[in-house]
Structures are given as C-alpha cells and as structure tokens.
C-alpha cells in the first residue's frame, strides 16, 4: 500500500510520521518513507517577497498542495508561488491556461526584474 500523507506547515515531518505510525499501530504493516517534504509558509513577511508581490501586482493567496516553496523555506529563503492558471485545475485532465494569463505573468516578471 502506498500512502501519500500531506500535512500542514504547522506539523513537522517527524510529527507527521508519528501520526502515521499511530494510525497503523497494531496492524501487520511496515512503514517505509519514500519521500518526506515538510510544508512551509511562503515567508510573505520578508521584504523581498513583499517587493515581489507589489511589483507583479499580485495578491497573496494560499496555495493548497506541496510546492518547492517548502524546499526554499527549509534553506531560509523566502519564496512565493507565481504563475498563470487556476490551481484547482492543476494536474487535471482539463488543465488549461489562457494566453492572456501567461502574458500577464510575463509582464509581472519583467516589472520585477527591471524594478529598482
């Protein structure tokens, strides 16, 4: 059996594993961790992240699901997810992105890269 357990940034990887061990306690199973990636808040309190959001004209909203922001956070680097598309369609059969959104993201990145 393969279990994909996603947990909130308020829970550490060790706590998540302990929770799984508790759930499966007493069953004849062996738990093997194939991958463990802790969640993270994006660090929007960092000036650099605030400047980015302002430059691209965005509004910070939550991103449900794991992204590489967690890896950056573990290294102490503030990060945000930024890109076109509807997150509720990510990885779905009908995933699509209107060209207008791609152009808007490109313009936002140019503003960020050429600011100051």
What do these coordinates show?
This is Succinyl-diaminopimelate desuccinylase. It comes from Homoserinibacter gongjuensis. It holds the Pfam family Peptidase_M20. InterPro entries: Peptidase_M20 (IPR002933). The chain has 116 residues and is mainly α. The chain is built from four helices and no strands. The protein has two domains: 1-36, no CATH class; 41-114, Orthogonal Bundle (DNA polymerase, domain 1). The longest helix has 16 residues, at 99-114. The radius of gyration is 18 Å and the shape is elongated.
Question: What is the gist of this entry?
Answer:
The protein is mostly helical.
Strand content: under 5%
What share of residues is helical? 25-40%
- Are there runs of 5+ residues with pLDDT below 50, and where? none
Mean pLDDT: 86
